[in-house]
């Protein structure tokens, strides 16, 4: 359950594109580091992209509790930590969705990457914060107040309400932001700015915070005024370290997010490219650049996208998929070249771009080793075939029902072997060819449980020379609807030597017979 140490009234509605920080006086940055902290209090509900009111819930033991609520739901009396039933009684009709902490964490990482436009060092601060090291970058934006205003306005355009603060320590800036105080703390003023805040904003262990409250220490300033040695003896060095990091005495480690590598290559030309030869030359040039970058990263392409920008503003796109990762420009050129016929240049293309949309690790391999060249050659052949015809393979899957026992898969993907037959169980033969649509049959048997002695197949009565069965297959209750009929399978041999795999749907006494496959 997310718990917020403080939640002033100003945070009960999304902030507008401007921030109150724009009207605050500029602090004196001083020679030390400067940090911008941004708090996104409604991130857990904003990622749902739904109009309010809305809330999310999570399981705690066998209880459903409210995990987060947007401002509209809070106005109706919903609070995080409530039982979901109580919240729905207070706000009937408010949609409740399962909490998605993984999606929120992924969105926070994306926003941290977006924050790199403010300064080159930024990091997510889970579960709902961002930290940006703006040391040395303030002058590029016109001051700290302008940095804060632009950051909050940018997040608002992305659909996220935020509050922020700037201070000389990351912990102080984040504490102020989480309390909705858009402060610009001058260098060395962190202790004064933090003094009125509750101790929970320091993210202390629950036992430490509870112990301080039992002593009557509810504010950070009250804790800072106490002798350090007794605090360390009673609550451990972690409390003193948290205070020192918040006040800027001890620098805290800052692990900036690393942007993903830019895996694309583009070519801009003054004279638009119209002929196919010119487009091919440009594509080969870009392939060489793109593959050289992938080689430095030790990666190979699985999906390549070509974007051709026309002089009149239109954009055309081609995509090429590969069965095995590759960074061989010649192979990629052979795949891409036939697809260039699909482009309609019109007045010409003034920009050609190649994008590595999907990549994977590709270790360097020595050519000529037995087995390696054969697999690579097969992959190259399948890649060329797949540009004109669908190419796929079959992979076994655990299932009792024959039509579910295999699935389509990448033809070069490593297969998964089916589970071994348990000891004492006889392995049942299965058909080499399974009919996509079972053929309806009529059958005659001496007794209801006996195998057929004659079958009516394709308007002709055929005697059965030999038969084995039945083999009963029960429905898969975890997948099938209730009441699905059982199947009894028989292996039949007819006079021309063919062996058929037939089934009776519904058990003994049923007259629904089907041919499901051809046995070897």
TrEMBL record:
Keyword set includes DNA damage: yes
Q: Where is the composition biased (Low complexity)?
A: 12-27
Instruction: Classify the source by domain of life.
Output: Bacteria
Tell me yes or no: is DNA damage among this UniProt entry's keywords. yes
Question: Biased-composition ranges for Basic and acidic residues?
Answer: 1-10
Q: Where is this region: Disordered?
A: 1-29
Keywords, alphabetical? DNA damage
Q: Which residues form the signal peptide?
A: none
UniProt record, GO biological process: DNA repair
Entries under PANTHER family matching the protein: BLR3025 PROTEIN (PTHR35369:SF2), BLR3025 PROTEIN-RELATED (PTHR35369)
The protein in question is named: Protein ImuB
């Amino acid at each position: 359950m997310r718990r917020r140490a403080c939640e002033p009234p100003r945070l009960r509605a999304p902030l507008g594109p401007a921030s109150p920080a724009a009207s605050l006086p500029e602090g004196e940055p001083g020679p030390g580091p400067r940090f911008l902290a941004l708090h996104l209090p409604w991130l857990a509900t904003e990622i749902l992209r739904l109009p309010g009111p809305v809330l999310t819930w999570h399981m705690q033991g066998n209880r459903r509790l409210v995990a987060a609520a947007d401002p509209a739901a809070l106005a109706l009396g919903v609070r995080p930590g409530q039982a979901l039933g109580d919240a729905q009684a207070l706000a009937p009709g408010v949609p409740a969705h399962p909490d998605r902490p993984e999606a929120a964490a992924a969105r926070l990482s994306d926003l941290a990457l977006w924050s790199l436009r403010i300064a080159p060092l930024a990091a997510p601060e889970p579960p709902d914060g961002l930290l940006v090291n703006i040391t040395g970058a303030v002058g590029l934006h016109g001051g700290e107040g302008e940095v804060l205003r632009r950051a909050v306005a940018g997040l608002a355009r992305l659909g996220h309400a935020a509050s922020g603060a700037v201070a000389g320590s990351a912990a102080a800036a984040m504490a102020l932001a989480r309390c909705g105080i858009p402060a610009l703390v001058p260098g060395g003023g962190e202790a004064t700015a933090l003094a009125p805040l509750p101790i929970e904003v320091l993210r202390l262990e629950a036992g430490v915070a509870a112990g301080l409250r039992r002593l009557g220490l509810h504010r950070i300033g009250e804790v800072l005024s106490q002798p350090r040695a007794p605090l360390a003896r009673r609550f451990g060095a972690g409390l003193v370290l948290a205070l020192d990091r918040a006040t800027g005495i001890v620098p805290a480690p800052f692990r900036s997010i690393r942007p993903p590598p830019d895996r694309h290559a583009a070519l801009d030309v003054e004279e638009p490219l119209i002929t196919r030869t010119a487009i091919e030359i440009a594509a080969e040039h870009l392939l060489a650049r793109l593959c050289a970058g992938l080689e430095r990263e030790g990666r190979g392409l699985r999906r390549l996208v070509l974007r051709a920008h026309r002089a009149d503003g239109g954009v055309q796109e081609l995509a090429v998929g590969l069965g095995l990762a590759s960074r061989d420009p010649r192979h990629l050129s052979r795949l891409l070249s036939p697809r260039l016929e699909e482009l309609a240049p019109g007045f010409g293309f003034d920009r050609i771009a190649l994008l590595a949309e999907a990549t994977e690790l590709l270790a360097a391999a020595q050519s000529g080793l037995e087995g390696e060249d054969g697999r690579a050659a097969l992959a190259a052949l399948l890649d060329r075939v797949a540009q004109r015809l669908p190419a796929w393979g079959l992979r076994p899957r655990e299932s009792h029902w024959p039509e579910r026992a295999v699935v389509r898969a990448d033809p070069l993907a490593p297969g998964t072997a089916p589970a071994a037959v348990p000891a004492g169980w006889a392995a049942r033969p299965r058909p080499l060819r399974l009919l996509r649509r079972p053929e309806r049959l009529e059958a005659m048997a001496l007794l209801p449980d006996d195998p057929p002695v004659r079958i009516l197949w394709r308007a002709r009565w055929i005697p059965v020379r030999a038969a084995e069965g039945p083999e009963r297959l029960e429905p898969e209750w975890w997948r099938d609807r209730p009441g699905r009929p059982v199947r009894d399978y028989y292996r039949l041999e007819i006079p021309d030597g063919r062996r058929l795999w037939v089934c009776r749907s519904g058990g003994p006494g049923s007259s629904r017979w089907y041919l499901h496959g051809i046995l070897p």
